[in-house]
Design brief:
Radius of gyration: 25 Å
Structural class: alpha/beta
Number of helices: 11
CATH superfamily of the largest domain: HUPs
CATH topology of the largest domain: Rossmann fold
Strand order of the largest sheet: 11-15-10-5-8-9-16
Mean pLDDT: 94
Helix content: 10-25%
CATH class of the largest domain: Alpha Beta
Strand content: 25-35%
Low-confidence stretches: none
Distance between the termini: 67 Å
Number of strands: 21
Length: 395
Amino acid sequence: MAKIAVLERKCTGCGLCASNCPFGAIDMKDGRPELNAACKVCGICVKNCPEKAIIKLETKVDSVDKSKWRDILVFAEVSGGRLHPVSLELIGKAKELAAPIGFHVKAVLLGEKVDAFAQELRHYGVSQVAVYDSPELSFFRADAYAACVEDYIQFAHPSVVLVGATSLGRSLAPRLATRFHTGLTADCTKLELRENTDLVQIRPAFGGNIMAQIVTTHTRPQFATVRYKVMNTPERSETAAGEILSRPLPKAAAASRVTPVSITPVPPKKSISDAEILVVGGRGLQKEADLELVKELARLLGGDWAVSRPLVEKGWAGNERQIGLSGRTVRPRLIITCGVSGAIQFTACMNGSDHIVSINTDPDAPIFQVAHVAIVGDLYEILPRLIRQLKEEQK
């Protein structure tokens, strides 16, 4: 790990470092440079300092004994009075990763009166469910939740910790990774586990232009968040297995400095992530009114409609209708894309669909690489014909 340091005894306050920094990461205060959070440790300021007053410090990380960190832990999220489905998807993936190297899969569950959820998790093949049950955990407080999960990690020493990339999970996971001075990869689309227990965390990077493989080689545990609908949900076994371990509330959780003033439940909203059939409009649509073709086809099929990012940027639809890294991940039984080119930011969030039908005038469109049925043609000719045929069949 590297960082930039300023040697005050050498600094003359010339300001060249601040003027040459491409990230605006250096502020001149009282004639002296101070680095802010925008610093990328690129080293340009080091090269441009005439007095050699700015240096780049490299710190060596000592490797942990990986043999002392075993098994895979899944944070089982309870929110809105239900077990979030992403928790089951993570358990399914964890079992797949754990089997070849002899790891067990464990879960940690937090909340108030969550016994029923703990019993349900036993039907999905976890070896242990650690339960922190207390009125103090009746709603999400980041410091209290982090203290509980940290307590169990210190007890169980899991090699890998998987967290759903929900609003709650995205708040919790970075706090945990910071406490253990280890790495965290967000929004993973694929996970692999090497024989040496290193977790290969794969996710789109640089605007989706490449698929990055990130490995935490020196520290444990290894943290990763995964979106809902990216992994497969395992089959529920009729037989319950695994133990339930009740854990006492840590003192740090009980001493939370967050006090609720009022709690207003947010009404549940229909999400495209839950749709079994989706019709998607893309850049190929010429005007906003043409979205009615997409909506009409979706209605006739008994499904829902969605869009790719360009249509959200045009203001034709809200972000809740967007499929992609900055929108939603979907896994319907059937998805029909209309005029969608198929950038990796889009396909990474829908390529797990059971049946993909794509319509595009470009025979070389990237979307055809993931489509099960590729239709090369004009959506303005194909969609009206589909709509007419469906209306005739439904008479």
